[in-house]
Design a protein that fits this description.
With 97 residues, the chain is an alpha+beta fold. Helices cover 31% and strands 12% of the residues.
Length: 97
């Protein structure tokens, strides 16, 4: 199964040691929301960006990362933590988001 935010919203786990029941429990607690709508991040303490980073001439194309960071920025509170879960070099989050 290809993991997507839609599958996570349905509590379909794609991780072997995390069950669907565990995902459902976290969703039901209100502490987790999978979404591609940046306004869903409003008021959250943590946001996780998961976007592709295709290679161009052996270097990661940061376009998706930069766009996601720019789209997310207006919706999070000062002091929020942004985690970047994309294949790129160390420091990308701090330098580009």
């Amino acid at each position: 199964m290809e993991p997507t935010y839609e599958s996570l919203k349905k509590a379909d786990s794609f991780v072997d040691n995390i069950s669907d029941v565990q995902i459902k429990h976290v969703i039901d607690s209100g502490n987790y929301r999978a979404s591609s709508d940046y306004s869903d991040a409003a008021g959250f303490d943590f946001a996780i960006i998961t976007v592709p980073t295709p290679l161009e001439e052996s270097m990661p194309d940061l376009g998706f990362i930069e766009a996601a960071g720019a789209d997310l920025a207006p919706h999070i509170s000062p002091g929020a933590t942004v985690v970047l879960e994309s294949t790129t070099y160390p420091g990308t989050t701090e330098e580009n988001c």
